[in-house]
Each structure stands twice: as C-alpha cells, then as structure tokens.
Amino acid sequence: MALYWIYPSIFILYAVRPCLGLRNYPDNEVTLLDSVSALGDLGWEAYPAEGWEEISVMDERNTPMRTYQVCNVMEANQNNWLRTGLIPRHGAQRVYVEIKFTLRDCNSLPGVPGTCKETFNVYYHESNSETPPPLRHLRESQYLKIDTIAADESFTQTDVGDRVMKLNTEVRDIGGLTKRGIYLAFQDLGACIALVSVRVFYKRCPLAVLNLARFADTVTGGDSALVEVRGACLEDAEELEPPRMFCSADGGWLVPIGRCVCRPGFEEVDGHCQPCRSGFYKASAMDAYCVKCPPHSYSHQDKASECVCERGFYRAETDPRSMACTRPPSAPGTPISTANETAVTLEWSPPRDSGGRGDVTYSVHCAGARRKTELLPRTTYSFSVEALNGVSHLSPSPRTLATVNVTTSQTVSVVLKERRSKDSITLAWHGPDSSEGNVLEYEVTYYEKNQRDQNYTVLKTKANVMTVDGLKPGTTYVFRVRARTEGGHGNYGGEIELETSHEDMLAVGDPNQSTILAASVAGGIVLLVLLVACFVVSGRHCGYIKAKQDPEEEKMQFQHGRVNLPGSRTYIHPHTYEDPNQAVRDFAQEIDVSNIRIERVIGAGEFGEVCSGRLRLPSKREIHVAIKSLKAGYTEQQRRDFLSEASIMGQFDHPNIIRLEGVVTRCKPVMIITEYMENGSLDTFLKKHDGQFTVLQLLGMLRGIAAGMQYLSEMNYVHRDLAARNILVNSNLVSKVSDFGLSRVLEDDPDAAYTTRGGKIPIRWTAPEAIAYRKFTSASDVWSYGIVMWEVISYGERPYWEMSNQDVIKAIDEGYRLPAPMDCPVVMHQLMLDCWEKNRSERPKFGQIVSTLDRLIRSPSCLKPLANSAVWEDPPSPEAGVSTVEDWLESIKMSQYKDHFTTAGYVTLDSVLYVSASELGKLGVALAGHQKKILTSIQSLQAQQQGTHVQV
Ligand code: AMP
C-alpha cells in the first residue's frame, strides 16, 4: 500500500516546490494559515490512525515540508478524517481556503476494487474554542460541508515516471463568519490523495493613497457588499470634497469620490503636497500649481500663499492676488479752463503714469467754493485736480496735484424792453460781456399762458432785439431768453409774462418799468460738481426748421410736440430737424473707430450686418457691444434712415430700453454701437428654451418690457412695432425694447404687410384702429404688448398660428381674441384681453400694466389658477387637416420627434390619439414643456375625431 503513495510524494515535492516557493501572495490577501510555511509540527488530528498520515519531506533546499497523505484504496468503507487546529479569523467575515493536492487516477492503480474514489470532502466548523472534542467523537452534523473536491488533473504511474507534475489547486470561500475561528476537516472515503498545501486567507483592500487622501487598510465585507471608507487628507492638503472610496469583496478599491487639494502655499508633486519655492506662490487651495509672483511683488520664503508688494507698490483689497502690485498715478496734465460768470469748465489730460491700473479717477478741489455751490462772478478760484486710483489711499507719499487759477466773469442781467401792439411784442435785451465769447444766437421761447402743454414757439435771432408778431390781442404770453455761444446753450432765465394790447396802440416800455429778466444769459453751461471725476457738457437741444421771418430769426414751431423744457422729457422726432446729421450729433456720441474691436457677425439688419465686439472708451472699462453697420453703396437717404435709429435711441435712458453707446459717422462703414444682449431676440430665445422657465421668470421679462414701454409712452414715443422679435434679452434675462429705426416702420419687418391704405403694418401685432386708419398711439402699443405677452407665455408661438392676415383682421373684428396659451395663469390672460379691448381708451396704460405685474410678482399665489387650455375654435387649430404623424408634428413645431414616434411604432395618426405623458417620456420626449404641447395637441386631435371643438 505504501508503494502507492511514497512514489508520488517524492516526485510531487521535486516538481511542486518551485511553485509552492512563491510565498509572496498578493498584497490584498492576508494569510491565516499556510501549511507549507509552518515551521513545526502542523499538529493536525487524524482519525482513524490508519487513515491520514503526516509525511514530512525535505524540499530541494532541505526545508522540511509537511504533507498529509492517504491511499487506502484497496479496502472498502473508508471514512478517514483529518482536522486542522483552530484557525483564528482575525476579524475577517469571509475567508478563502486554497488546497493544493494530487490525486491518483483509480484506473492507474492495478487491481484496485471499485470502491476506489477520486474525490474527497472538505468541511468547516466555527468555534471560539481551541480545544475541540476529539475526532473520534466527531459527528458530521457538527461540520458544515464546504465542497466535494475532485481533481482537474489526476496522475498515473507513467506520469510519475515521466516526472510530469499534476498538481491541483482548488479555492473555496466561507462567508458570514462570526466566531473566533474555524476548524477545517478533510474527509477521505477511499481515494489516494496527497494534500500538499492548505492555505487559509482573507482579503482586504490595502492602504491606498489617491487624490491626496490616505485610505486605511480595510478588511472586505462579509457578503458582496462594498465597504465605504473615508479617506484622510495627506499632510498640507485639505478637503475639497470629503474623499471616499469603496472596498470591494475581492479586495479592490472602487469609485473614488471627492478629493483633497494642496492648501495655499503648496502644490501637488507626485501625489504629495510640496511647498511653493521662493519667488512663487499659490493663493488658493483650488489653484493647481504655484505660480511666479506677479510684477512688483516677491516671496522670500517657501510656502507663500501670496507675494508681498515691493516698496512703493500696493495691492488694493479687491485686487486679485495674481494682479501686479500697482502704485498711485502721477499728477494729471495742467488743467485748461473756460469760465463764465458762475461756472468753470476744466479739462486736463490723463496722468502720464496710471500706476499700472485702469481705475484712475479724478478729484477736483476748489479753494473758496463749497460743494455744489454756484461760483461768484469776477472771483478768482484756485482749482487743483488730483488723479487717484485704487491704491492711492494706501500710499503714505504726498499726492501730486495739478493746479490752476481761474477767474469767473461778470454776470450780465438782461434788461428787457418791451413794445406792445395788439398782435406783436418787441423785446430787447443786453447780451453778456464780449469776454464771455461770441454769442452765436439768442433763443426766445414763448407760449400762451395756460397753454403751455400745447404749443411752444422757439425763435432764434443773432440780434438782441426781436419782434414777435402774429400774436392774439389781449392775450398774455410767457417769454424766456437764452444765448448760445461756442460752448453751447446757456440757461434760460426766469420767465416774463407780457400781454398784447386790446386796441391797436403802441405801448413803449418805460425804462423804469422795464422788466428785469432775472436771468443770466451766458455761454456754455457746465455745472461744477466738486470731487467728481470729470465735467460733462450735457443738454439735449431742440431741433428746428428754418422758417422765413426776419432773416436774422429762425422759428421753430411744434404743432404737436413740446420743446425740451427743464423737467419735461419728450422725445424729439429726428424729422423735426432740417439737418438729420444735427440730430445725430445732438443725441449720439461720436466714437473713434479705434476704440472698437469687431469680433463676430451675430445677425443681419436691414442696412447691413450686426456684429458683436468690444468697446473701450478712454479711461472706461471695456464693454461688450453690438455693432450695426451700414453696408457700402448706400444712398444719402439710407444713411439718414440708418442713423435715425441712433438719434431716437440716444434720447432714451432706461434699463429696459436698449442703450446706445454711440455712432461712428466720421469714417466708413458708418456704425451704430449699442449694448450687447447676449441672448439675442426674445422670440428666438424663447423657442430655444421652450418650457424651461417658471411663470415668475416669464413675468419678470414681461415686467421689464412693460416698464420700458411705460418710459417710452411717457416720452410720447410710439413704437409701432412692438413684438417679441424686437425685444432683446441679455445674460441676466433682462429684456429690453429695441428697433427704433424710422424706415423700419416697417420696411425691414418680415411680419409687416401692406395695408389697403399703403404702408406696411405687422398685422398680427397691431391694434385694429392702427390697421384701419393708421391711428398709432401708446394705446395701440398696449395692444401689441398684449400680443407680446401671449408670445412670451407660449414660448414664441406665432400669434394666430398659420392664419392669413386677412383672416386675423376679420376674426378680431368679429370679436375673437387669442386663447390663453398652455399653463397661462387666468390673470395673465385677462390682462392680455384687457390690452385687446376694441375701444383703445379702455385698454390699460403701461403704468397700470407695470403695477399689475408687480402685484402678481409679489403675490404669486394669484398666478395659480390656470386658464383652461383651450383650442382656437375658428379658425382651425394647427392640427386640423393633418393626416400623418409627420404632418401633425410639423404643424405643432415638434418635428424633431418624428423619428422618436416612428421608432416607437406610432406610424398612423390614429395610433397617437392615446399616447400618455409617461409614454412620451419613454419614447424620448424629455422636456415637460414639449410633453404638454404634444398632449394638448393630442386632446385637440381627439376633439376633432369626435367632431367637437372646445369653445374659447
Ligand atoms: P436688427 O437690425 O435690430 O433687427 O438686428 C438684427 C439681429 O441682430 C437681431 O434680431 C438680433 O439677433 C441681433 N442684434 C441686434 N442688436 C443686438 C444687440 N444689441 N445685442 C445682441 N444681438 C443683437
């Protein structure tokens, strides 16, 4: 019998040892028992005595090795047990058993009976005790079977002779362990086996460093669940997001989440944080690397989180650490002054050295004048101008000022002589000192007392006497006079009231009764505001039409308009000017083309391309602008029309009106520069973001438009083409009214159609009275505003869909109005209907619309009740008449989902009638707004199928 096992064991050892010799198990395996490396007796218990036998053999390096062998193949009824000592589990909940063994092929053993086996069983028993009951009392039920082990490779006698190794390795795992350890037991039922090695181990995730965090050595979980491990930041690192990883059952780390970053002054090198070298710094943990100190700063030590400014250089509190240190500016150029009797204009050139900053401001000091106080005539004042920037206050050095002494001139009071008849009044006055500069002309404004709002007359003359005739007898008129010199217009003086006589008599003013016009008629008026950066000559002038009268006089008559008197803000139509270029000069700032940088084309206007670009005006921050240019080959009329938009826009100053930055007229191409509106026109913007805004966001945009329109209506400006396409939206979702061109009424509007009376009108947006007899008023703008509300709430839907203009006119005349768009609050639809009152005096004013919207924004619960989503009864809904899924989707502008429907099997129109919201989601219509749109249309299809219409 021994014959059978001795041979194999010798050969096994020679052949196997080199493989067993690799004791460097993977570092995620922790060995609990390794029979090969056991130094002493394994001390395993075998029962019965003639069964398993421990055989110590020497390997090729003369190291003793213990094996257990059994080979009682010749006798039947074998039940040989071999049991290890207690193998402590050291906290592991799952352990692995790796068995290396050889097994003889029964056929290779001559004359063995049929009881010969080629398998053996492995069991385990969990226990807290190191002294198990003796094996002879072993009951199988106390042990849990791990598996029956068979050989992949058995070996035959010939193999042994050929020294072919047939070593089997089998690994099994045991989970859910809770006691101190386990006993392994091997049961042989009559095979010829040699157990060469038994190793028990558990798995762990070994210590790992990832994303600058250390994850401790972790024992894997008992079942296949992952163990979450929180990492700790390495030295000089801090948590950006708590670092975590999962230890998987097979000892691998998975799914790193979060990370640490090197703290300020340190940077990551080879997975660790290293201090910044001197001359370098890192200001924020979020920065990846240390960078060189910016100009005029240094860091002498390692680990700098910021660099220190060199002497004489400073960093303002709000300056980023990456910015160069800067210093106060040098003194500005010596001011040049112009003075009249009560005001002084100072001009100076910027400092030669701005100190390296762009935020230079100026502080003007006036010795002897109090803040905002008028200056006295014939008095010498000493002005000093100081240039300041963001670090001036940090510098202890004395400031450098540019000073100038200025003497104001003498005030001239105008003595007004009068001569009256029943239809004329003659006025005369003294002009100011010739030292004030040449008077170019005087402007006499008068109106009939108590009729101020209706009719103003402005007369101009170069003489200082004027006869105003054509007056009504026995009527009181109010006169005011001002002068214009090269510096611009002076202030109007106080008003004087004079009455024409009742009979035709000559009334000569008694010098003693002469009226003193308590006015100073002076040259360019500049209000001196101390401590303000610069002086601005401002003032919007009235235009005038030359009328023949006294050749010395020019007369300006506004039949419907008013002149710009202080306190009133009225829009002046550029056509009021005989020379439209003057209107442009009056209302738009000329910009030097070198200050403009064109970046890209963003659209096409009527007169040429619209581009975006940058505008940098001297000593101003660079801004993003839109640039409209006049294409080459224009006629003079086109140039005027193009620039008329600037002369109109330039008169407005409101956060919801597109702001004019200026014009370029001195070189070609002629350009109009406006603020840049990142999101472009409102209709396109809404279509692009269909269903993506809250009602409050939509309301906010509408509120802006209403506020802009309120301002325009208060300026007596009627827009005539208010529509979502003419509203621009910036990056903060602020909407602004645009499109003020004169010719755009309405040549460039694709939605404008010719009416029977001639002239183009955007029918769908225009009030009936404006279509019928061109009655354009702020009330007709309110009608258009109602349409804009509808466009906004329906995300850019076309008003009245595909109805023809004629049908729209007819439907409106018959009293039809657009139904509430989907999800439209009742109150909003009501507001639209109010705007669409047939009688224009019953429509709300823009001011009321703004208040209503403000009220709704403040109490959003009012927005909850939604108007029933209704279908426009007559004319037909967009779905009417469609017969295929493709046509249907196209009619509701959802053709992007054509393929989705086809792929999901909806090929006939009937088949879509019962599609639900969840099915829409499944077939790929993800946006809620689109789902709603499709579902509403399906309802309408259903209604058509049943021959019913929902009444508006
Ligand atoms: P308009 O000639 O004013 O109708 O402009 C034509 C197109 O250019 C508009 O529809 C806008 O898409 C774009 N556009 C005009 N002005 C601006 C601006 N200030 N900011 C951004 N885009 C603009």
Which features characterize this protein?
alpha+beta, 16 helices, 6-stranded antiparallel β-sheet, binds adenosine monophosphate, 7-stranded antiparallel β-sheet, 952 residues, elongated
Describe this protein's structure.
With 952 residues, the protein is α+β, with helices and mostly antiparallel strands. Helices cover 18% and strands 29% of the residues. The strands form 14 sheets. Strands 1, 3, 4, 7, 10, 12 and 15 form a seven-stranded antiparallel β-sheet that branches. Helix 3 packs parallel to helix 4 (636-649) and helix 6 packs antiparallel against helix 11 (846-858). The longest helix has 20 residues, at 695-714. It is elongated and about 160 Å long. One of its GO terms (molecular function) is ATP binding.
Total of DSSP H or I helical runs spanning 4+ residues = 16
Give the tally of β-strands: 50
Report the helical percentage: 10-25%
User: Into which percentage range does the β-strand content fall?
Assistant: 25-35%
Mean residue pLDDT: 80
